[in-house]
Structures are given as structure tokens and as C-alpha cells.
Amino acid sequence: MNVSHSATLAANEELQRRRGSGERVLNLAFGEAGLPVHPALRERLSEASGHNGYGPVAGIPALREAAAGYWERRGLSTDPELVVCGPGSKSLLYGLLLAIGGDVVLPKPSWVSYAAQAEMVRARPILLPAPPGEGGAPEPDRVAEAVLAARAQGRTVGSLLITLPDNPSGTLVRPGTVKRLVQVARELDLVIISDEIYRDLVHDNLAGYLSPADLAPERTVVTTGLSKNLALGGWRIGAARLPDRAHELRTKLLGVASEIWSCPATPVQEVAAYAFTEPPELRERVVESRRLHGTVARAVHARCIRAGAAVAPPQGGFYLYPDFGPLRARSDLRTNADLAAMLLEKHGVGVLPGHVFGDDPAAMRVRLATSLLYGETSERRLTALASSDPLSLPWISDALDHLTEALSDLVVPRPGGTRLRHHSLVSDVASG
Amino acid sequence: MNVSHSATLAANEELQRRRGSGERVLNLAFGEAGLPVHPALRERLSEASGHNGYGPVAGIPALREAAAGYWERRGLSTDPELVVCGPGSKSLLYGLLLAIGGDVVLPKPSWVSYAAQAEMVRARPILLPAPPGEGGAPEPDRVAEAVLAARAQGRTVGSLLITLPDNPSGTLVRPGTVKRLVQVARELDLVIISDEIYRDLVHDNLAGYLSPADLAPERTVVTTGLSKNLALGGWRIGAARLPDRAHELRTKLLGVASEIWSCPATPVQEVAAYAFTEPPELRERVVESRRLHGTVARAVHARCIRAGAAVAPPQGGFYLYPDFGPLRARSDLRTNADLAAMLLEKHGVGVLPGHVFGDDPAAMRVRLATSLLYGETSERRLTALASSDPLSLPWISDALDHLTEALSDLVVPRPGGTRLRHHSLVSDVASG
Are both B331 and B234 inside the same structural domain? Predict the structure, then answer.
């Protein structure tokens, strides 16, 4: 269960060493939003610095009410009593797996922590590929098949987890797929866990967003947080909307929460109670962030396509999951770990290899996180955020050139000097 | 595993309801330090409000170095690389049980979360009473016996957990007992987990404090935090000093931490990096707090003794664990849960029944937390903290009278009107 941490750490340490010795590095390995704290949030934290009580395990009432309002504004009727907050949605996901029990169906690839958490609670993750061209949810027919097979072997399967939009692929599952998954979950009596931490960062067309909770609020848990939309990853605050009338699940989850983390940091809860009301100044910040994430992710996408990779266009968040297989990469690169190591060692470019997301080690896929391209300082990041043309900022344009240079090393020269370009179409990056 | 949370919640809700309807309540149920945040800590939190990165799982280097310094000043050579911080020492304890593996030996009674955590990681807690007159550590001979018996049955026993000073009894294990426990742990190859979160709140005679880490730094994990000494419970920050050269345990613990909580809230880490250096203004605050906790705990002790209970004199923290068995209580009270319910319902006094600490449900023992007697407002609490005679403050003196009144209801009137007083000697409150 330490793979992800170690892989991330190793990449981080190597990048820091290189940066320390004056080398040029490009950090595409970390899923941090890469933007400064909004001043209104800083002010609220200062104001809340006198709050030192433990408070309720589920979170202070003002926070739970604000989070309920957040979901209400997205068309989802929410009882504040069924909102549970934690120190990050990660901790809530762990608590949910423990409280729901049984094995969990996951998309393949999917965020590193799902499978690791499942193993920690002694559940078996059942990893299934997404429908062609999608990412973040397993193909519904295969879910039915796999769950029935597992149950026939005497296993208990309790839940199905999806990520909307997805990490690592940056894509959004189609409404039709969500509908089919809900139907399968109903037939098989599975709890659906919908990780919607990147929801506010869908680049366009928010109107088209369909959460399984919209269709099956009685069996869907939605998780979110402020780590991505407001770049508060280090503040550790997340929230879960439990299924309607799921008081038993709530009791179990609070039992877990009370024995592991007690409550999120109280001053942070006070800030979150304000943030989840979505005042105009924070809405504007989210809109700006979404625009910047989309612009830079699309620019990186274009570079990958130009280099000959197969990669789905980014729809949300700040990730891409290119497949360099079409290039047949280079003969010395046999696994995505080799590919990531080469990019790091030869080019100072940090990425995460696909195998940490549960993908086939031999598939030449890596995750690129594009959010640390906005600059090394708060000043540069704010400039990027405010810019109508962030790609023209010299530090961002340099970083993109650095990436292009590294990617060009993956292209196999052909006799006559033409490059392999036949795989530049969008392909099924998210399927296993 | 939800018992403790539910019991606490139930007491809290009933107390709040009563307070809401204007009734007089006395909250002796909660282990919160009951003091305001020191202004220097508030300032540091404001200054750190721009920090939003995730940072290292083990905590930022400045924090780990400061925590190492904290232990160095207590005579314990500490490598900052072997310090791991988390959102409260509770989360670290959970991570340690998971990382060490196997069953865990616990004192009986002991803090509610140890046994609950053990069950959550599917370990079996082995609860053993303390030596007569002590609390917070199991009797060493019985540890050897129980571990050998468990192993003979094929069970794995990985660790032994002690609390110095203890919650719930407020007492401190004698150095001789610590020595014998270390010897047993060496013979049986057990990791010792020493929960020292109340260490700075030993009322007197700090020089006499012996940690198992002083004797066996190669097999002892020490945990601490800022929840008790600096009343920052709601800020969620704890630290663990791993055994010398325990790099493998560190890797495992960081694997758990990275998959459950990522890191403590970054602004709080910045504050803790300052607090663990123990600047004069915070040292003074800890000295004042220790004095107040001791004064009030001793006053409550005297009231319990006067009422005829058997109870060890408090040595650290803000707890007492009186035994009302000598009074044979009242015939309608058959369990400590009955006793706690009667105190709550009839007198508005909230306490925790001994059974939540793993004690015998029929033993008439309850835990009294004395730290919420200092006042309802920050102003009153600061007044109490600064007072040379806090017991004379009207709100504290009223609270003590309220307690005396409730305790008097436990005394069985005898023919001739004399009270049962024959059990006013200190007794073995911490043994099972």
C-alpha cells in the first residue's frame, strides 16, 4: 500500500535535488491546484484563530448547512444532518469504505488512493476499464458481470466508486454511462460513491454534469472538498453528502471518524462554512481557476498530440493521461515506470506512471498534472490567474517548450525523417 | 466501535438541551483542556494563512525539527527523520496500530479510543489491570502471562500501550513499573507505545517522570500533541517519535498516513513548528495551565473523598476516576452507566461511565473531567488561569458546590444519620 506514496516521494525528492543544483525541472507529478489562497479565506482563518474546541465529529452545524446549500444549488436536495465533514475527502473515502464494508468496484485507471485504501480495510478492489473514450467510471456491463462473479465466489461487494470528472484522465463520464451505472447499482444493491472533488473545475458546459446522486440520491454518497476548486489542499477539509435517510451509515462513519481524526481543524471548518456558501468573490475565483486550468491543460494536450501521443481532450481538473504506446516509445522503455524514469532523469520532467493508478505496467501511459506550470511564486500564479492569455507568459511558455523538448525524445525517427503521426486521434485512454 | 462516540454525544446533547432550557448543568464528561488559545498562537496561525500546499506526509521539516528539540530537552535524543506528525496523536495511534500489526496490550481502564482503534484494525485488545494504586499501564507480570498465553493460541501480539500520565485516572505510573514493563517488552519483543499527551501537565515533580523511551528508545514510540498542554484540541496536531532506527516502521506509518489524512493542516503545522520550540511565553502558559488543572482536580478529589468515594489523588492532566462502590451507591444503581445516567438526569452532571474505558460495567466508577469548570467564556477561563486562588472564583466555587450536592445523593443514609466514610482512603482505582 506504500507504492503511491513512495513513487510520489521519489519523484518529488529527485525534482527537488535537481532544482537545488540549479537544473531545469518541470513538475507534472503532483495533483495540487497550484494557486494561492484567496485573501478572503486568509482573513477568515485569522478571524477563526480563537476557535480551539473539538466540536462535533461531523463538523460544526454552520459548515454542514453551508455544504448542504452547496449541493442544493446543484439541484440536489440535502439534509445537513446527513452531511459529514472530515480532514479532506480522502479521509472520508477511507471512512466510507470501512463503514460500508465489502469489496469495492473501481475504474481502471483511477486515483491511487482508492485501491490502496480498499486494501487497508481488507477489501478487494475490483478494477474495471471505462467505456471507450471515457474515464472515471467502469463500463456498466462489466460491473454487473464482475460483481455477480465475485458474489458467486462468496465475496461481498458493497460499493462502486466513480470520479466525476476523473483523475487521472481529466475526462468526464457521459450522462448515458452514469444512467447505466445507476441502474446496475440498483439491480446489485451497491452503494455508489461519487468523488466529485473536481466538479467545479469542469472546464465548460457545467449544465451537462450528471451526478449519480441526481438519479439515485437514496444510494449515492457524494464527496467533495476545497482542495481543488479553492486550492486549499493543505488545509485538509472535505465533505460527504450521505444517501437520503442513511442514518445507519452516518452512525458508522461517525464512529470511524471519531476514532481516527475526531474532526477537521476547527479554524479551517469556520473558513469552510463561509466558502461553501459560495460568496461572489469566491465564485469568481473558481471561474478564473477553471479557465486557467482548462487553458493550460488544453495547451499540454496539443503538445502531446503533436508529439504523436493518443490522449483524450481534457474536460475538467488539471490532468491528462497520454498514451505514448502509438509511438511504440523507444525500445529501451518497456514499462510506464521506465518512461517516467526516463522523463525525470533525462529531461527533469516529473510525471506519474500509469501503474500507480492500477493501469497495466506495460502500457505506455503516464499522468501529467498541469497545475504546477503556473509559476513558482504566488505573484506569478496570480498573474497567470488574471491573464487573458496565460500561455504567453514567459514562464508558462518556457515550461511548455521544456515539455515539448522532452516529448520529442519519445518520437521514433523513421526512415525519411517523417514522424509517426497516425495515432493523434483521441483514443480510449481510460480503458485498461 | 461506536460506543464511546455515542455515549459522549448522548451526554453532550442532554447537557446542551438542559442548558438551553435554562437548567443548571455541570459538564465533567469531556476531555477538552477548557482554556483559550494563547495570543501568540493565534498570531502565528494568521501569519501562516497563506500556506496551502500539501507538504510532506510526515510534516514540514521545521515542525519535525522542533518536535525533535522538544524531546531532546526532555533527555531523549531524537532524529527529526524519525518524527512523524499527524492531525492529532489519535490519528497517529491508529496508524501505528495498523503499521505495527498484531494484537495490543492495553491498561484497563484506558482511554476509550485505544480498544476501539484496535478493533477497527482487526486486532484484539488485551486489557489488563494496573498495579494497585497506579493507572495507565498494565501490571507487568500479567502482561507477560497474557502475551505468552495469546501466543500459545497462535495469536500475534505486536505492542503494549501505556498512558503517562493516565486518562481516565489522572495518575502516573511509578518508575519501577515502567522499568518492569520495559523488561517484559524486551523479553517478549513488543513495541511500546507511550502516549504522553498529558506529560507537560503532570502537576508536580516533573523530575520524577520516567518514559519507557528513556530506557528503551529502540523499541518505544512516544506520541504527544498540543491538544492538552496548549489547549489546541480542535486544531488537530500531534507528533510521534519513532524508535531509533525504525525506518521500516516509518515507511509503513507514512503509507497509512498518506492514504488516510495526507498531512496535518499546513497552517497548523506552521504554528506547531513554533510551539514545539517552547518559547518563554508558551512555557509560562503551560505552567499556569498545569497549576490550574492541578488545583481544580485536587479540589474535586477532596469533594469525592468527602462524599465517601475511593479515588486516587490526581497527579497529571484533568481527570479523576472515583469509585463509588464503597458507598454501595444506591440500590437502584446497578451499573456505572446507571450511575452516570442518574447524575445527568437528576443533577445535570455529565460524567463518563467506567465501562466506556473497558472497565467492569458493574463497578461503580466514572470519569470526571475537571477542565470545563473554569468558566463558560474565554474571559472567565483567563481569569481562572491568572488567579492565585481559582477556587474562590464564584463560578468555580458554584460548580464545586453543584458537584457536592450531586455526590451527596450517592451517600446511603445510615441509622443514626452518620455517613459511610470508611472508604475514604486512596484505593486501587485503576485496576480492573
Answer: no
